[in-house]
Write a structure and sequence with these properties.
This protein has 345 residues and is of the alpha/beta class. The protein has twelve helices and 13 strands.
């Protein structure tokens, strides 16, 4: 694929988004709905984090006439088949998954149920779409993660790098998604695109993420936990850049790779600019106007020292590079946080 062959977003397409009440699912849905696309959301609305955020996201999406929502569990084969029959999607975006590296150490079964069994059910429904509702799904996009790179020393991380040394079950489930998707593409001709997201942040984000909890604790005068004594780097990627990257891919499924015999591609979406954790905290302190109380702790099991995206393939195939700097992105997030929680300026 080259930039000259790109198809623009086709607003006539029906897009099914699993994890539709989640952070990325909400923002992607809102972007597509604002352009007139029909969007069907699917989510189990679990309480991994404050469900009020999920319901408030849903409230915003229901303002659009071309939006509908189905509550259900990806791990339930019957629910997924019924979803496909009722919605008849042209494009499927699988963002539904159990998130969180550290939680995967405490509750591994949730990750197998949602991320492995759930994704298998989505793949099966795409495979059988012509039987379920009379036409083939044109493109399946699914969320992978920068966690699949583990603690490798080579930087930046390229999609061609070896990703066999995983250090969390969360990462292992995401790697399994990549392998399963490739296999289904090879065997059944399903066009699949996997996207490895790098530390996504922004408004209506996840409270379990560091930027969210740091903001909350700094404003409330509570201590923040700084792991590995602050010696960590993250390729923070603002939500608007993530959504733009995914939107560009929707109507551009991979072509057959002659060497591999599958219509399958992987891309990184990251800012291509790792920031040191302590600088990230300094920016937050400056925006909030208050110094953080810091509790320095050792590295946590499952955490990686750094993330750093090579986005050469993304730029080559779609002419797109994330461009929101950490200062601009965090300022937008803090402004949203203060407004949403009513904490004042």
């Amino acid at each position: 694929m080259t930039l000259l062959q790109l198809n623009p977003l086709d607003i006539r397409k029906k897009v099914l988004i699993t994890g539709g009440a989640g952070f990325i699912g909400f923002h992607l849905s809102k972007r597509l709905l604002s352009k007139g696309v029909t969007v069907i959301g699917f989510d189990n609305m679990n309480d991994y984090y404050d469900v009020r955020l999920k319901y408030d996201r849903m409230k915003a999406l229901r303002e659009y006439d071309s939006y509908s929502f189905v509550k259900g569990d990806l791990a339930d084969k019957g629910s997924v088949e019924d979803l496909f029959k009722a919605s008849e999607p042209d494009i499927v975006v699988n963002l539904g998954a159990q998130a969180g590296v550290r939680y995967s150490i405490e509750n591994p079964r949730a990750y197998v149920d949602s991320n492995v069994c759930g994704f298998f059910n989505v793949l099966e429904a795409c495979r059988d779409s012509d039987k379920l509702f009379g036409k083939r799904v044109e493109h399946l996009l699914y969320a992978s993660s920068s966690s699949v790179y583990g603690n490798q020393q080579k930087t930046p991380y390229s999609v061609s790098d070896n990703t066999n040394c995983l250090i969390s079950l969360y990462a292992a489930t995401k790697k399994s998604n990549e392998l399963m998707a490739f296999t289904y593409s090879h065997l059944y001709g399903i066009p699949v695109t996997g996207v490895r997201f790098f530390t996504v942040y922004g408004s209506f984000g996840r409270p379990d993420m560091a930027y969210f909890s740091f903001t909350k604790n700094i404003i409330e005068g509570k201590a923040i936990e700084v792991f590995n004594n602050g010696d960590m780097y993250r390729d923070f990627t603002y939500i608007d850049d993530i959504v733009q990257g995914v939107e560009n891919m929707l109507c551009n499924p991979p072509q057959v790779d002659g060497a591999q015999g599958a219509r399958a591609k992987l891309y990184n979406i990251g800012n291509n600019k790792p920031e040191k954790l302590m600088y990230f905290i300094e920016v937050l302190e400056r925006i909030i106007g208050k110094e953080a109380k810091k509790e320095f702790l050792p590295m946590q099991p499952g955490d990686v020292y750094q993330t750093y995206a090579d986005i050469g393939d993304l730029a080559r195939d779609f002419g797109f590079r994330p461009s929101t700097g950490i200062e601009e992105g965090l300022e937008k997030f803090v402004e949203w946080y203060k407004g949403y929680y009513g904490v004042g300026s």
